[in-house]
Amino acid sequence: YAPWCSACQQMELAWESFAKESEHLDITVGKVDVTQEPGLSGRFFVTTLPTIYHANNGVFRRYLGSRTLEEFQNYVLERKWEAVEPVAGWKSPSSIMMHGMAGLFHLSGWIRQIHSYLTGTLGIHVWISYAIFILATLLIGLFLGL
């Protein structure tokens, strides 16, 4: 979820109620703010919000049902998740490829912080910051090419 997402806000009450009921269902329910954890949004390949996953014994399934407390409970109690196709192996959050995707999301956040530091804190013009990143990219490419 993200704090600014209106669809996330609409289902928040149902999700919080589901989390409170989780002890009775013998499950764990959680939520992750993708603005605070960009690596996880990359690792789980989150393209729409809210995105819900069901994880059981290392197998991940994307929940696409209704966003109501009753449907969340039925998904678990009636074992509806068994009829859902698991996430493909290469797209699984535990795969090496998705670990790499998480790394790219962390890298982009790091680059954004450096850019903000250069332009905001040091007062460097935006285009000069871009030029620094272009130069750094070329130098790293040359170094790796050697």
From TrEMBL:
Entry coiled-coil feature ranges: none
Pfam families named among the record's database cross-references: Thioredoxin
Q: Which residues form the Thioredoxin domain?
A: 1-76
Membrane topology type: Single-pass membrane protein
Q: Name one GO cellular component term.
A: endoplasmic reticulum membrane
Q: Which GO terms describe its molecular function?
A: disulfide oxidoreductase activity
Going by the entry's taxonomy, the superkingdom of the source organism is recorded as Eukaryota
Which cell locations does it reside in?
A: Endoplasmic reticulum membrane
Primary localisation category: endoplasmic reticulum
Q: Which UniProt keywords apply?
A: Disulfide bond, Electron transport, Endoplasmic reticulum, Membrane, Redox-active center, Signal, Transmembrane, Transmembrane helix, Transport
So where does this one cross the membrane? 122-144
Would you tell me the protein name for this molecule?
A: Thioredoxin-related transmembrane protein 4
Organism, by scientific name, is Cuculus canorus (Common cuckoo)
